[in-house]
Amino acid sequence: MNINVDVNDFSQVIENDRTRIWHHLTQHKKFETVDPLLIIEGKGLRVWNQAGREHLDAVSGGVWTVNVGYGRERIANAVRDQLVKMNFFAGSMGTIPGANFAEMLIAKMPGMSRVYYSNSGSEANEKAYKIVRQISHQKHGGKKHKILYRERDYHGTTITALSSGGQQERKGMYGPFTPGFVEVPHCLEYRSQWGEVEDYGVRAANAIEEVILREGADTVGGLILEPVTAGGGVIVPPAGYWERVQEICAKYDIILIIDEVVCGMGRTGEWFGYQHYGIKPDIVTMAKGVASGYAAISCTVTTEALFEEFKSDPEEPMSYFRDISTFGGCTGGPAAAIENMRILEDENLLANTAKMGDYLVDKLEGLKGKYDMIGEVRGKGLFVGAELVADRETRDPVPESVTQAIVGDCMKNNAVVIGATNRSLPGLNNTLCLSPALIATKDDIDEIVSAIDEALGRVTAA
């Protein structure tokens, strides 16, 4: 598909962007000499910039969001129709799309029961933390308030979400942080903290128990984990890890929160990443792929047992969950989410994700045989990482500048947008991260891998 764009049509827009917009994660000094990039149209996996150049998007909107691809008229129409009929009412009341999507969602999550709406992944996790804290006060005199999080995991950008983030460079210059959050070790066997050990997954999970005992089990109320670590390097937990984590949470009466903000809605080949592992969470949070970016929505989903903790005599005014999310009352989010889920079902995209994910891993393993710079390929579904090393034997990571050079080469020479860990992990921002829309075909995968192949060739030759 080609579109005709006259760059002069966008001169004022570019100037407005340059002088008025504060972009995410961007050093704006560069815009004194170069124009900001505008993405003006999208269809399927393709987007076009202001110069009319086509890009294949291998990261679903740059942040793992557009799961069903661009240009979905049926989602846009569903949102439009709903907004005309009823666009918003506070979440203390119900709406038709809110009730209907909740029923659809719970049907995909055996063991879960209640949906609390908000509008971002950070906010969804904040709700989970508030649930843990309120239960601590209601049942434990406030003592069982600590929440554990894992090194290399990421749970959001607010100060409290950053307090639970295991990526130190993201946290730099934003402290002091909210107290009561405690880090546990990562579970990336490729970078084992204990050398070569049998049953690394069990060992990594046991490290969580060690932290609990150090802190005092009677002070730990919650544990939040990504099912597959996302921005921390696409880390798939090794065998035995999740089973042991579940045992530990049950043993110490710890609320298990699974952060599905990235992995949810089919990204890993199941509806949710935790469903690969037989986990029975107490809380599941989600955002990005819930509506594929067609409207803002996030969900904090709980078991009925947890929900029941907040039910009591109405004469007890402080016992209910005293929280509000203004834009959790927008109806566009659940309206978009309903159509998004229908597309995932109608087009059998979970099966496609599993199949194309395997194909992507195989193709990257082929590149690993060609380039010593690729140390390990790992992933689940259409969520795949390739860790880059300066020396495969010692596993010394390449500098972040090398990783970004490959990303930049793809964007410049191949017009393929790929992602990477960046400014997150001191000395370990060395993983290429790929997450194309779940509609990806073999041809799309071939184009992505070819771009990486050519970029690796140029960067290693430089």
UniProtKB/TrEMBL annotation:
Pfam families: Aminotran_3 (PF00202)
Stored InterPro entries: Aminotrans_3, Aminotrans_3_PPA_site, PyrdxlP-dep_Trfase, PyrdxlP-dep_Trfase_major, PyrdxlP-dep_Trfase_small
Cofactor(s) required for function per UniProt: pyridoxal 5'-phosphate
Cross-referenced Gene3D superfamilies: Aspartate Aminotransferase, domain 1, Type I PLP-dependent aspartate aminotransferase-like (Major domain)
GO MF annotation, one: transaminase activity
Alphabetized UniProt keyword annotations: Aminotransferase, Pyridoxal phosphate, Transferase
CDD domains in the record: OAT_like
Record PANTHER family: AMINOTRANSFERASE (PTHR43094), AMINOTRANSFERASE CLASS-III (PTHR43094:SF1)
Family label: Belongs to the class-III pyridoxal-phosphate-dependent aminotransferase family.
Designated name of the protein: Aminotransferase class III-fold pyridoxal phosphate-dependent enzyme
